[in-house]
Structure formats: C-alpha cells, structure tokens
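User: Show me an example of a complex going from sequences to structure tokens.

Assistant: Sure. Here are the input components:
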Amino acid sequence: MLYFSRLKIISIIVFCLSLIFFSISNFINNEDFFLKKKVNLGLDLQGGSYLLLEVDKNPVINQTLQSKLTQVRNYFKKKEIKTFDYKLGKQKVLFKSDTNDQEKILELFKDDNELNPYFDVYKSNQYNVELIDNIFELTLTKYGIIEIEQSLLDQAIEIVRKRVDEVGTNEPSITKSGSNRIAVELPGLDNPDRIKSLLGRTANLTFRFVTQNTDASFGSEKLKNLDTGEELNVSKRIIISGDNLIDAKPQMDNINNETVVSFTLDRLGARKFGRATKNGIGKQLAIVLDNQIISAPVIRDVIASGSGQISGGFTFQSATDLALLLRSGALPAPLDIIEERTVGPDLGEDSIKAGVLSLIIGFILVILYMIYKYRLFGLISNFALIINLLMLLGFLTIFEATLTLPGIAGIILTVGMAVDANVLIFERIKEELKKEKNKVIAFDNGYTLSRTAILDANITTIIAALILFVFGSGPVKGFSVTLSIGILTTLFSVYYIARLLTSLYVMKNKNNEVTIK
Amino acid sequence: MTGKYLFNKYYNLSNIISLILFIISIFFLIFKGLNYGVDFKGGTLIELRSDNTNYKTEDIRGAFNKLNLDDLSVKKFGAEGDYVIKFKRSDLNEPDFIKNLKNDLDNYLEDYSFRRVENVGPKVSAELLQDGVTAIAIALAAMLIYIWFRFEWQFSIGAIVAIFHDVIITLGIFSLLSLEINLSIVAAVLTIVGYSMNDTVVIFDRVRENLKKYADIKIFDLTNLSINETLSRTLITSVTTLLALLSIFFFGGEILKGFSFAMILGVILGTYSSIFIANPVLVYFKVSQKTLIKEED
C-alpha cells in the first residue's frame, strides 16, 4: 500500500489544490475575485429571524364543500334524478335520494369525471361517497385534500414572497416545508414584529353596501366598523374585491391633513365601481378588510375614474402596511405562525467568536498531542489534517452550504475523529515494526491491516450523519452536513495525503532507522 | 498469551456496576423525567442581556413574575448579566406579543435587550421530539444492520448492548442534573452512538482477526488480548476527541455547552463500554472460530 504512481501523485495534488482554491474565497474579500461563492452563515451565527408558517386549510375545505354542494345539486337536477335534504356537515356534504336511485347515484360518483374528478397521478378520485342509513356522505379523499393543500401552498408562498420582498429585507429565503408549511428566513432581521403582522393577515378586501333591510338574494352580516366602533349591517353582495386592485399606495391627503391609502382599479373593477357608485349615490359604502370595516364613507358622486382613496384614521405606518397588503393580494387561507426563532446580531457575532475560538484551541491541542505522540509522523498527520479542513471548507463553499453553530461543532468533531484513523494506522505500524524486520513491509502491513477497522468505523459514523441529515430538523442538519463531508475528506486525507507523505519518507529512509517514537 | 492487563478479570464486576447504573438511570428517566427545552416542550425562550450590573437573578425573575406568565423559569446563562427566561404561551399568532412584553417589562427593568427569542408551537415541538427519536432509532438500526453484515449477529448484539448502556446512562445523568434536552442534544446522542460504535468496531475488528489466527485461545482470553492490542489506540483517540470536546465545552459559548457535555459523557462511557460491555457479550455467546467459519460456508 505504499506505492504511488507518478500520475496518482499528480492527481492527488491537483484535487487538493482545486478544493483549497475554492476554500480561499472565504478568507479574502472577493469583490474583484472571480469566484464569488462563499459559505453562508446560518441565522444563529449572523443573526436573523426564522418563521415557520402553517396554512390553515380548513376554511378553504369548507368553501370547496360548499360549492361542491351546489354543483352536485345542479348536476342531479340536470340528470333529472331526485335528490334532497342537502346539508353541510363537518368536513362533508350530506344529501338524500329516493331509494331506487341510490345505486345509480353511487355508480355516477364512480364513473363520471365531471361529478367526481379522477386524478391520474394518484390513481384516486377527488371525493369519497358512502351511503349510511340512506344518507349520502360526500367527503374529500386523502388526495383531494392534498390537491387543495398544494394549490393553497403554491398561492400562499407567492403572496408571502411578495409581502416579504416589499418590506425589503436582506436576501430573504422563502421555501415550502412539508405539505402545508412555509419557512421564512430573514437574515439580519432582529425584530420580526412587522413581518409577522403583515404575514398574519389574510388581507381580503371587499367593497360592499351597508344595508338597512336584509338583501333577499345574498343576505347580510353584522360587521364592526374599526373607525367608529359601531356595528353595521353589510350586504354580502360584493361590488369589487382586492382582486380588482392594480395598485395601492399611502398618500397624504392635504385637505383633511390625514394619511390615506389611494388605490387604482383594473378596467373591469373600474366599470363595476362606476356603476355601483352611480346607482348608490347617498348610500353608505363599507370597505371591508378581513371581516372588519375599515371605513364606511357615504357615496356623494359617481366615481368612474377607477381610482379612489380609503381613509380610516391611519398613521403613516399603518397606511403603508395596508397599501403593501393590498398590492400583494389576499392570502388564499389564513397563516398560523407555529415556530419563530430570532437571534440578535451581537449574539450571532459572539457565537462565531466562541465557535472559532474553540475550534482553534481544540485544533492546537490535538496538533500538539499528535506531535508529542508520534513526532515526525505526528507532523505528517497534522499536515493532512489541515489539508482535510481546507478541503472540507472547499466542499462547503462549492455546495454553498450553510454553516451553523452545530455545524462548527461537527467540524471540531471531524478534527477529533480524523486523528483517530491516523492513530489506528500508526499504532498498527508500531506493532508490525516489532514483528517485521523489513520496514517497508511493516509500514505496508500497518496500512493494510488497519484498513477494515477504519472503514467500518467511518461508515457507521457516516450512516449516523446521513440519517441525521434526512430526519433531523433545522440547525441539527448543519451538524450532519459538516460531519458527513468531514468523514469523506478525512478518509481522503488519511489514505492519500498522509499515506503519500509517509511512503515518501519511508522509501527515502529505507536503510536508515525509522521509528514511530 | 492474554495481554498485559487483565481486563477480563473485571468483566463481572463492571457488568454489575453498569447494570446498577443502568437501572438507576431508567428509574430517573421514568420518575424524574427529562428537562425538555422549548424545542420539545413548546413555549417561549428569551435570552436577555442586562447592562445593569446591580441586577441579580431574583430581580430579573421578580420583573417577569409580574407579567403573569405560565410555567416561568429564569436562569443565569454564561456571562455576567446574561439570563435565559422560559415560559409557556398558548398563542403564537399574536404578532405584537414581544413588543407588548417589552413595554410591560420596561416598568420593572432598564438597560436590557433581548438577544434571542424562540417561540415553538405545541404542534412543532411534538414533531421535533418525534423526529429526534425517529432519527436516533433509525440510525441505530442502520448501524446494527451494517455491523451484522460485516461481522456476525453476536457482535451486533454486543454493539447494541454497549450503545444502549451509553445512551441511557447519559440521559440518566441529564435527568439527574436536570440539564436541558434540546435539538442539539439529539445530535449529541447520535454522535455518542456513532462514537461508541466506532470504538466497539475497532476492538471487534481485532477480535475477528485474532479468532482466525488463534484457534486454541478461548474467547474469554481472546477478547482480553484484543483489548490490550488496541488499547493504546483506544486511549489516544479518546484523549484527542476529549481535547477537542473540552475546548468546545470551555470556549464554545453557552449554547454549545450542553452539547459538548453530553458528548464528553458519551466518549467516556463509550470507551468504557466498548471494553467492558461489548466484549463480555461475545464471551456470553461463546463466540469461537466456528462462529466465523460457519458463516463463511
């Protein structure tokens, strides 16, 4: 195991140098360096906020079932099958039919794609139908729910991105997490209150008339006016909604000297709004945001221009936030904040200092101990260790990995464990030198005989690290990344760098005395 | 030919001591339980730094006590003036919660800042705990299957007994000292598992080699010989790993302290168990040259 061909030696050197080259960009200010890649620091090291949001799918499921109920009723009316007693239960639609139609209805739910869509990808229908005590029970299947969740999540993540971008934080990262969650990382942000309040609102905007009598076809509901505190009876008929908005911005109204939000409507919205204001002069218009009235002005004139103002006792900040919410659009469902972690920038800095300090101290202790134990071979293994760490850093840079505090712990552990392989080899060589007169054979045997132990030990550790990567959460992942890459670079540095140097030394001193202390 | 030191003389004694420690640990884990941090229990954690040197822990606790928080705990955290405050909170969605908390706190404290705020909802914390336990269980299973493939089933049992010993006693000590269990402790436990396995594998590798070499040495003496032959490696590796870990413990800052403490316990226990737990299991199963040959047929 001591022989290295010239080609092999060159490839080893080239491989090491190229990884070290990548690692260099972390140490120099690389404005003019053509490699811009750097290891990212985790939020725990650079400070920042992490929010985990969960999409509340229940309102949307209820909505879906509500419209399904109407669809099913119309469908059977068209087919001239008598169905009746429609009811919306908990996460289900209930209805009845004549007993002799039951078979036929079940059959239709199985076969008709219009009534019960079939998802080819999942090999499943959207709805389950069961007949219990002569009542049909219509529920969403597992995949029906997944379908809803996915489209909700896709829409929600877009809106979240818009809102976070509008606030203008530094390089935010917004990613899906699981089937119904969104992870938001905001580096450098030490006070997430504003973002939280922006993401915590659905921002569902509607313009509706205030009514005295209950509107026959749509009904009405009592809503609270935030401006005045009184309750008003508001029609459920929507004149225009947030979807019709193309722009909104905060503005100073010079006449009343207050901050307002001015908005611009799209063509359809402008036409509807014009017609409504024409028919409704003298009526009170309710501007409703998330089931609360933010203002209820009386219409004095036709507004045909498609633009207007909302006033509601805003401060400049709240007007700015409202405009931002209106511009970014409504969330398809409410978001719950289920996890939040915020680290201040000075704590992050302290953590880096402590992490790096402990890394350096641990490293120096290990290096000194190895020199004390193995003299020249200690130096060789230390050299290999330094190259090992630079290569590890090079890989982290190439993958643009995120370095967290547990990640630093993973590196320190790599230092401790990297030494183990060399110790195993040197101890074995010592044993072999006692038995074998020929030094080259003794060294060769030392490497060969220790190999199974080293491989077995490292493979078991890498199994642990990889499983931690797959199942571990959050910052712990950083630990497994550095540890698993560290094990790979360790094996390389032990078997290619340290072994190469050992072999060069032994071959050169074939006829001299060679001892490992 | 059984080696310089007679470890095998102490197999029985050490097994009895380990068994007692193991049972005590289980006892603690059942009756005292673990001190879960907000990661696993849910709630809010605030790391507070005050620049007012006159404050004592009681002052900080007194101030927070006035805010009517459930399950409040206030502890010093590393450097002078740093505290960790934990409490339960039902609703994470109140966006102004921290702002209001600060406003209220301003009445009782001055010259302070929040350096870190963590809120974990009950759903997330339950999942994190489950994920952690799953990760450890799967990692254990995967490593044991690997050992089983590489060695024989008797070795696999030896390794699992040693690992359970290390993990349970480490957790027992965490329970005894009421140290906090958080996400990084899960990483530490998995690393302990890896380290202990590592140590055991090195000795087992030598046992396997010696089994092939010496047909006439009984397993009782053969394990002792193998332990002796690998002893210097075992010690040197333990020392280097401990050096690295001690430096994290003393210089790595408060957040890594629990992690490195768990690891230090694990390394010490792992070194001990790979000698005194894993090997007696081989003796118990009467592993011999035949065990290896039978498998090779």
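The lines above are the inputs; the final block is the predicted structure for all two components together. Residues 345-398 of chain A form the longest helix (54 residues).
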